[in-house]
UniProtKB/TrEMBL annotation:
PANTHER family: UPF0750 MEMBRANE PROTEIN YITT, UPF0750 MEMBRANE PROTEIN YITT-RELATED
Species name: Paenirhodobacter enshiensis
Protein name: YitT family protein
Principal location listed in the UniProt entry: membrane
Pfam families named among the record's database cross-references: YitT_membrane
Membrane-spanning intervals of the chain: 18-42, 48-68, 80-98, 110-128, 175-192
Membrane topology annotation: Multi-pass membrane protein
Keyword Transmembrane helix: yes
Keywords: Cell membrane, Membrane, Transmembrane, Transmembrane helix
Compartments, record wording: Cell membrane
GO CC annotation terms, alphabetical: plasma membrane
């Protein structure tokens, strides 16, 4: 019996998926910044730089992602790069806009860290599902794995470790600890739910 290829997403489905992912990721950044926390990957480095310099998260995140599109093109093609660029642009813009409209009067650190992980995990799952990402180290790590055999997961872990070590010189130890909780929740969401064999559409 010939296996039928799963149907592809329509342009409208891709558009709403990218919008959902970008908006949810931006809302997660609002939670982080409200609590004075960070996270891993390029998003975490961008938040940390914004704390250190006073620059807006959006422009920093957009600029730091620019070198990584080449790796994405070489590893996954032009379609992936275009979608990823759109997702990064959405997060960069909404990450600047949302803080003007969203305020938290009370936000418990544990609840905030956990909700950041859940919300950002959902955002990334949506983007992955629609053939995009939020750029950065994840793309480069896959490229390096193809070229050198060095595991992508190790590259990402090393980068995240460097971000958190740098954060120790900028943020209170307790804030770094809660940030780590949020990063663990985020990675657990991805690890448990990102299964291509569970998908029914490409």
């Amino acid at each position: 019996m010939t296996e039928t290829a799963p149907p592809q997403h329509t342009p409208f489905e891709d558009a709403q998926g990218l919008l959902f992912g970008g908006a949810m990721a931006a809302f997660g950044i609002v939670i982080l910044q409200s609590l004075g926390f960070i996270t891993g990957q390029i998003a975490g480095l961008s938040v940390l730089i914004s704390y250190m310099t006073g620059w807006g998260f959006g422009p920093v995140f957009f600029a730091l992602n620019l070198p990584f599109y080449w790796f994405g093109y070489k590893r996954m093609g032009a379609r992936f790069v275009v979608k990823t660029f759109i997702a990064v642009l959405l997060l960069s813009v909404l990450g600047q806009v949302f803080p003007h409209y969203v305020r938290f009067g009370t936000l418990n650190p544990l609840i905030g860290a956990a909700m950041y992980g859940f919300i950002s995990g959902a955002a990334l799952l949506a983007l992955f599902r629609h053939g995009a990402s939020l750029g950065g180290v994840g793309i480069m790590s896959l490229y390096l794995q193809d070229k050198t055999g060095f595991k992508a997961g190790w590259t990402q872990m090393i980068f995240d470790a460097c971000v958190f070590v740098l954060a120790l010189f900028v943020l209170p130890l307790q804030a770094v600890g809660w940030s780590f909780v949020g990063a663990v929740v985020l990675n657990m969401v991805i690890a448990v739910n990102h299964r291509r064999d569970h998908y029914i559409a490409g």
